[in-house]
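Translate sequence into structure tokens.
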Amino acid sequence: MSQKISALAVMASKYSVEPSKLLETLKATLMPKATNEELLAFVVVANRYGLNPFTREIYAFPGRSGGITPVVSVDGWIHLMNSHSEFDGINFTAADLDGKPYSVTARIHVKTRSHPVEVTEYLSECALPTQPWKSHPRRMLRHKALIQAARLAFGFSGISDEEEAGGSITAAIPRPVFAAPTEPVAPVVDIVADNLTGAEVPVTETAEQRFAAAMAEKAARE
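Result follows.
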């Protein structure tokens, strides 16, 4: 019982409310069907990462084997990165195939490392037949790359993104599969985000672009 009061007290102090009132509000607005034990587990995770459940940085999703899974929205992942003392910036590289999004690579720069942490996510492995993926596939793919790179760079654990938590629901929905490319992948466009809410600005040709162009020229000769 003392652990429950302590965990709630930490969060209640952050938002300047009484622990009992916080418990009542969480149950009434965010987790109406959760048990006290499930709510405690959720509060502990939210406290650990400093995420706000009332702004949907973190919320609870029914677990596949019962209980709940703490789910972090993309806003929560951005908050986790920006608040980490070792975070030193992020940039994205997007590749298209036949005029359609193909992959996005996220590179996170960490102050204590000589090389950035790099993760590439592919549309064929990530896309779902949902409206966000249909209307904004590049943005969604960038979010996936950001989340996976953040995990590798900073070791965030015990939390899931929105689609991972919903895997038990969406697993039966067929995902799109791209045929093997018959032509070289279109030149890569390097996109730099000074901040994650700012506009994306194409920059000058990178070494990756020059490499891709050279490989395309070689394939054409062959």
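Note: Confidence is low (pLDDT under 50) at residues 168-211.
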